[in-house]
Structures are given as C-alpha cells and as structure tokens.
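Structure ticket #2291
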Amino acid sequence: MITKELIGDRIKQYREVKEITQQDMVDALKNKDCAMSRETLSKIENGNRSVSAVELSKICDVLDVKIEDILEDDNDDDLVTLFRKKKNVTEETLAEIEEVQNIIISFMNQKNIVKKGNFKKSAPLWKE
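Resolution: structure written out below.
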C-alpha cells in the first residue's frame, strides 16, 4: 500500500540520487510557481505531511521523474510479501527471507553512500 511515508521516502531518495539539497529543491520549486519552505519539504520527505497533487507534479518536474515512479505500489517487490502468497511457507522461512532482504537493502544503501563519496576512507582495523 502506498503511504505518505513511502511517497516522502521516494522523493528523498530521488533527490539524493540527483545530489540536490533540500534548499536547492525548494528554490527550483519556486521557479515552477510552487512556493514551499525547506521545513515543509522535510516534513513531506519524513512522512509527517501529505503532498498535494500539484506539489507532487512540480517535485517530479524538478527531479525529472514520472509521477508513476513515486506512486507505484511495489508490494510485489517485497520478498516477504511474495513468499507469503505461496502455500507451505513457514513463519520461520518468512523470517529468514526478511532477514536476507534487510541485508540486501542495507548493502544497497551502503553502496549508494560509497557512490556519493559521503564517507571517510580509513585503513582496516586489523591493519592499525
């Protein structure tokens, strides 16, 4: 199910991938006749405020993404949901699948951090 939290998270993800700050986003929205404060954008991204259809359309314009990409209900992409639909899958197996899924998501998030260069390289602990 698509929620305001999921929409906000996707907006934030697209914004960060494009390396646009919240302030840059707000400034770009103003140029598109969509006045919004940085605090409002933050609330939207954190799921503390709903985004209107007009705001979402302008945000998508700035991010150069389709509204469908933000609003797509991707329950089928969730491994646990997929396996729940199958018969003869135990709760223990579902818990293991969820753990693997969380590891993959964590790995992908770390890969995104490394891609952006938002980390400090250091020698491995065993070499210090």
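Closing remark: The chain has a mean pLDDT of 84.
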